[in-house]
Design goal:
Oligomer: single chain
Strand content: 15-25%
Strand order of the largest sheet: 1-4-5-6
Helix content: 40-55%
Length: 198
């Protein structure tokens, strides 16, 4: 699907504003790296520091606003940095732990449909506990009411980090269903581009 002229202009505006803000507000953190500085020079280290800061900042300052701008024309709503919910049932917490344990010891394979079904079955069973889950990077609501919760990751996430990503996605489902057990909710890891292309 090709982008409309309006979407192209929105993306250009997001990029322009983000880069302008970064240039105007960049404040390098003091880092003593004598070996690197002597080997590469002060100018190259300053450039490296700026580029590293820009790369780190791409998620919230570029990828999220661009995703939101593109989604607004297709979805009923698009919001960034949202909370999936703040309550989780003790039984849903137990189910999530069982899913994680099964994956860790390889007694089960990932099966998102069954995992969501298992959480839905107990989403309001047991003691309701107040939690503070990780913020949802992009929350989209489709015209049919489907809720899409995206966690935007860098292009090369650490393999060990995927365990915690999985737990976060399951917790988002559980907190969303705790508030609305009938919700059609999808939690998704989004990686903006393929670093191994082609």
């Amino acid at each position: 699907m090709a982008l409309t002229q309006q979407q192209i202009q929105q993306v250009e505006t997001v990029l322009r504003n983000s880069l302008r803000h970064k240039f105007q507000n960049y404040n390098p953190e003091p880092a003593v790296m004598p070996f690197h500085t002597r080997l590469l020079g002060q100018d190259r280290m300053a450039l490296f520091s700026f580029i590293h800061s820009l790369n780190t900042n791409f998620g919230t300052s570029i990828f999220e606003p661009v995703a939101k701008a593109l989604a607004l024309s297709t979805f009923a709503s698009a919001e960034s940095q949202q909370t999936a919910g703040n309550q989780i049932s003790s039984e849903a917490h137990r189910v999530i732990q069982n899913i994680m344990d099964g994956l860790a010891i390889a007694t089960s394979l990932p099966n998102k449909i069954e995992e969501i079904k298992a959480i839905r079955a107990v989403c309001q069973t047991g003691e309701m506990k107040t939690v503070k889950p990780t913020k949802v990077d992009i929350k989209l609501v489709g015209h049919d009411g489907t809720i899409y919760l995206f966690d935007i990751k860098t292009a090369k996430p650490n393999a060990g980090g995927f365990k915690e990503f999985k737990r976060t996605l399951l917790e988002w489902v559980a907190t969303t269903l705790a508030a609305n057990p009938r919700a059609n909710v999808q939690s998704i890891i989004a990686i903006p581009y393929n670093p191994y292309e082609p």
